[in-house]
Specification:
By secondary structure, the protein is α/β, with parallel strands linked by helices. The chain has a single domain, classed as Rossmann fold (3-Layer(aba) Sandwich). The chain has 6 helices and 8 strands. The chain is globular.
């Protein structure tokens, strides 16, 4: 049985991704900043949970110790704060840590095992706000961090063998705590492309940016 980690998997899109991967027969681990919330969600879904706070260096270091067992990594955790990008705050640093630096460290740790087993799927949950073609939007540094995550996706895909697929995806505007009640899509609709990318066949795409299972512009 293949093992998958979904960061921020205790609610919203991440929880829906975790459920989809469970249904696909994977051994799923939910990574959650709040361990109690992670345990509750894991019990509900019948999966495992681990504390994983991407703003906490100790938590990331602990994750490195077991990340090599992963066959699938879904970097879903995000941070959206409604504040001026150039304002006097540390939103930029928090955003980059959660959506770029943290995913990079998890990718680097998990790739060692993936290369040894000649199999791996990495999915980076991005956003249209991280697309230069669609506008680099969002509060604070959200769009900038997602654009950097896209760049990390493409560059990393160029440095691994073809047995490992690394892609980014945009879930669209989803009814979550971040997306709000007025959003047009359910969490299941938002999660579908991530689940597809996390379970790609050997001849599946890599180094792409997808929405609704279709490639979109960076």
């Amino acid at each position: 049985m293949r093992t998958a980690l979904v960061t921020g998997g205790n609610r919203g899109i991440g929880k829906a991704i975790a459920a989809g991967l469970r249904d696909a027969g994977l051994d799923v681990i939910i990574g959650a900043r709040d361990p109690d919330e992670g345990k509750i969600a894991a019990a509900e879904l019948g999966v495992r949970s681990k504390r994983l706070d991407l703003l906490d260096a100790t938590s990331i270091n602990e994750a490195r110790a077991w990340a090599g067992e992963l066959d699938v990594l879904v970097n879903n955790a995000g941070l959206l704060e409604e504040m001026p990008f150039l304002g006097p705050n540390d939103n930029y640093y928090r955003s980059m840590q959660v959506m770029v630096n943290g995913p990079f460290e998890l990718m680097r740790a998990s790739l060692m095992g993936m290369q040894a087993r000649a199999y791996g799927r990495i999915v980076n949950v991005s956003s249209e706000w991280g697309s230069f073609s669609e506008g680099l939007g969002g509060g604070g540094a959200y769009g900038i961090a997602k654009a950097a995550l896209n760049a990390l996706t493409l560059r990393a895909s160029q440095d691994v063998p073809a047995t490992i697929k690394i892609n980014a995806m945009c879930p669209g505007w989803v009814k979550t705590r971040m997306g709000g009640a007025g959003a047009a899509r359910s969490t299941q609709e938002g999660a579908d492309t991530a689940i597809w990318l996390a379970t790609l066949p050997d001849d599946g795409p890599t180094g792409g940016f997808f929405r609704d299972r279709k490639r979109i512009d960076w």
